[in-house]
Amino acid sequence: MHKSLGAKPVLFPLPVLMIGTYDLEGKPNLMNAAWGGICSSQPPCVSISIRPERHTYTAIMERKAFTIGIPSADYIKQADYVGIVSGKNTDKFAATGLTSVKSELVDAPYVLEFPVSLECKLLHTLELGVHTMMVGEIMDVKVAKSVLDEDGLPDIFRINPMVYETIRKAYHSVGPVLGKAFTMGKEF
Amino acid sequence: MHKSLGAKPVLFPLPVLMIGTYDLEGKPNLMNAAWGGICSSQPPCVSISIRPERHTYTAIMERKAFTIGIPSADYIKQADYVGIVSGKNTDKFAATGLTSVKSELVDAPYVLEFPVSLECKLLHTLELGVHTMMVGEIMDVKVAKSVLDEDGLPDIFRINPMVYETIRKAYHSVGPVLGKAFTMGKEF
User: Fold this and answer.
1) Is residue A59 part of a domain?
2) Are the beta carbons of A71 and A16 closer than 8 angstroms?
3) Were A147 and a residue from A115, B40, B129, B180 both cysteine, which residue would form a disulfide, CB within 3.0 to 4.6 Å?
């Protein structure tokens, strides 16, 4: 038996995305976003959704660029702080001690301490209501060498990314491997 | 130090989404998608990205509707099977034993056995390259009563959703709570 929750933005799992931008004054800023995901393989694209009143919205519309950082759980407090205050009146890098690195590919900064960063050029915007969706083409994915495995590939346990749970507004870790894709289903 | 992975569709975590549709003949079908996420709070919207050659693409374009089911890890084999074969020549419900339920709100089926289902009306499409993004308005979220907690809210551990890891192509569980959002960051 099912219960109707009503028309609500609910999905499991949700990501914890740190959107990096330079604002109009050139100050690096970060936003904490759970509304987003990969939306194309070729060209590789990612979408994020941002309210127009956000400081990050203006920065992306002006600079046509953003980064998406995946913070490890070691930075849970910094990531949460980023979602509490506005870059309009706060220097979030100074407050948290995170280090801004200027991307050589797009007009946006990424975070030195985060294990994974996507550098994105704005391709499309789509107004949906209170949020505007922004689609970015992924120009490169930067991965900290410390999270690469013996094959030189990023290892999810070394990255230690967080999952956002929107009902209880909690951050979770990623759990163990349950099975291999394109393999488990072959028995049917 | 960072390493460039190149321009690739990489994000952590990714969801495991079961896209439910009726095809042109009225046969219920499912597709396994990792490219998608919530994209608006009001109206509540979710986006998924689908290649035009997929059976599900034609079904959504025709019916202007789809559902998104969140399978629990108990259904990992069924979910994986859904991603291996095409609905063009397979009845995935018959093959897996999953039960199709006709939505009363949109022209698409959801899966009785899955703990969470979003019923969506197609609002927008956006061609991005090999994938077309489809934005659906969430008309209702159906949750199995068996996964509700004492407050009547969906509990992520009872839902037991999966996380998709695109590098090793593996399914993971969701791990323990690390902290509360809008709380952990207050120390800065």
Assistant:
1) yes
2) yes
3) A115
Burial A161-174 (b: 16+ CB within 10 A, else e): bbbbbbbeebbbbb
* Domains in chain A, number: 1
Q: Is A142 in contact with B5 (Cβ distance < 8 A)?
A: yes
Q: Is the residue at A3 inside a domain?
A: no
For residue B178, give the nearest of A172, A177, A181 by CB distance: A172
pLDDT at A32 (0 to 100): 98
- Give the one of A78, A84, A145 whose C-beta lies nearest to B2's C-beta: A145
A163 inside domain: yes
Does A185 contact B78 at a Cβ distance shorter than 8 Å?
A: yes
Walking along chain B (188 residues) 10 residues at a time, the average pLDDT comes out as 96 98 97 98 98 98 98 98 96 98 98 98 98 98 98 97 98 98 93
Asked if the structure places residue B91 within a domain, the reply is yes
In residues, how long is chain B? 188
pLDDT tens digits along A69-121? 999 999 999 999 999 999 999 999 999 999 999 999 999 999 999 999 999 99
For residue B174, the domain's CATH number is: 2.30.110.10
Burial of B89 (0-12, 13-18, 19+ CB in 10 A): exposed
Determine, for residues A185 and B81 on separate chains, whether the beta-carbon distance falls below 8 Å.
yes
Residue of B nearest to A131 (CA): B40
User: In A18-52, which positions are buried (b, 16+ CB within 10 angstroms) versus exposed (e)?
Assistant: bbbbbbeeebbbbbbbbbbbbbbbebbbbbbbbee
Task: Report the gap between the CA of A91 and the closest CA in chain B (Å).
Answer: 12
- Quote the minimal CA–CA distance from A100 to chain B in Å: 14
pLDDT in tens, A9-18: 999 999 999 9
- Residue B156, domain extent: 14-187
pLDDT mean over A15-41: 98
For residue A1, the model assigns a pLDDT of: 86
